Amino acid sequence: AEESDGTRRLVGLSPPLFALMRTPTAVIIDELDRSLHTLLCRNRIEGFLDADPSSSGQLIFTTHDTNLLDLTLLPRDSIWFVEKDRSGGSTLYSLAEFKEEQLEQLGSNLERGYLSGRFGAIPFLGDPKRLGWTKKTAS
């Protein structure tokens, strides 16, 4: 039986994540959440964070999983956003740059704040009609 994308992804991530827990190294993973259930992704991050702090490894990852915007999981200065402008340029900024009172208004729900545009870094969604797609009608 062929394994799912998520299973293959988890197996592929295991060696660098285990190495990270044993050695002072940095591991960079693009789209950590790709093909992984949000709870499994969170579990991998918690496993790294709960590891022996003397290993001093660093995990740097990108994600589209807004469920990970959680201050009980990651400190403010560990959460960064990338804002892409209309010309294709990108700006990187930290959640720590936002005032404490802005975050307190949201309470524990950073995800809702992000999705409502409070922190920027929301994809520009143009009018889908401009794509020229047409609906097929049943004959």
What is the strand and helix layout of this fold?
Elements: H1 5-22, E1 26-29, H2 38-49, E2 58-61, E3 80-84, E4 90-94, H3 100-106, H4 110-115
Parallel strand pairs: 1-2
Antiparallel strand pairs: 3-4
Describe the structure.
The chain is α+β, with helices and mostly antiparallel strands. The strands form 2 sheets. It has a two-stranded parallel sheet. The chain has helices spanning 5-22, 38-49, 100-106, 110-115; strands at residues 26-29, 58-61, 80-84, 90-94. The protein has 2 domains: 1-68, no CATH class; 73-125, no CATH class. Strand 3 and strand 4 form a beta hairpin.
Keywords:
139 residues, alpha+beta, 2 domains, two-stranded parallel ribbon, two-stranded antiparallel sheet, 4 strands, 31% helix
